ABC transporter ATP-binding protein/permease
Amino acid sequence: LSQLFRPLDMLGMVYREIRQGLIDMEAMFRLVDTPAEVTDAPDAKPLAVTGGLVRFEDVTFHYDPERPILKGIDLSIRPGGTLAVVGPSGAGKSTLARILYRFYDISGGRVTIDGQDIAHVTQESLRRAIGIVPQDTVLFNDTIGYNIGYGREGATRNEIEAAAQGAAIHDFILSLPHGYETKVGERGLKLSGGEKQRVAIARSLLKNPPILILDEATSALDSRTEADIQATLRGVEQGRTTIVIAHRLSTIVHADEIVVLEAGRIAERGSHAELMARDGLYAEMWMRQASEAEEKDKEAA
Ligand code: ATP
């Protein structure tokens, strides 16, 4: 009999690995090519998160040695604090997040969490400590309950519902024909952009990580949904060290620090008020977005 079950055990193992692979893939924020092999150091220890102090110290990085991407980045995010990263397309914003997740090893400097170099801790412990709300959420052809529960293996129905409540999607789910058993994904119910984001938020709540990366979608949701999601996110950020990769400056006014990344360097940094007073790149981006928003409102009226 055990011979019969062994292959099934194997299958279970393979399945779990694939699932972890998918979680990692989602975390790559639509990054298509395979990253260079990142391996655990022989003496790697599990990361011990005590408060969630994240630091980048003179970090340099390239995908291709011919083309430096990050050129001496210094960042420090206090435990529970929020850092927002803004800047033109291609400046290296997503790259910063991928480096924190250690999809790639850096070529110079170090990245630490509570004083521990992330290159010297196990990848498994590092990735367990970091939650990601990606731009695009991958939904499986399965129930909505399953899709949320996949944020943490072994989550109970009660935990899944609590996470859905935290992400303000519980009532919506209850209104579906089969509640939590409703099939979603390509072959099921199609969720809107905002609903998908809420599924991603619920997954992160289940994972309950001390560090959170929010990768804001480029395409804006309608302004009411956007405001609702932002309010939910403010709650999720509480007590976690958060990095927001932002495209809409209106969503990061509350951040402790905003850094403007330009061609792999920090061009400006400070609070929203400080950066506005500086009247530089950030202020210019802010004015441009404000007038674009005004145009849109006029069109809609
Ligand atoms: P966006 O706002 O458009 O998402 P970004 O600031 O997040 O841009 P990154 O995705 O970090 O920019 O990319 C920074 C630079 O690195 C870009 O020039 C990009 O072409 C390059 N790049 C990104 N990923 C890879 C990769 N896997 N291999 C080679 N180059 C890459």
Q: What stands out?
A: The mean pLDDT is 87. Residues 57 and 74 are 5 Å apart (CA to CA).
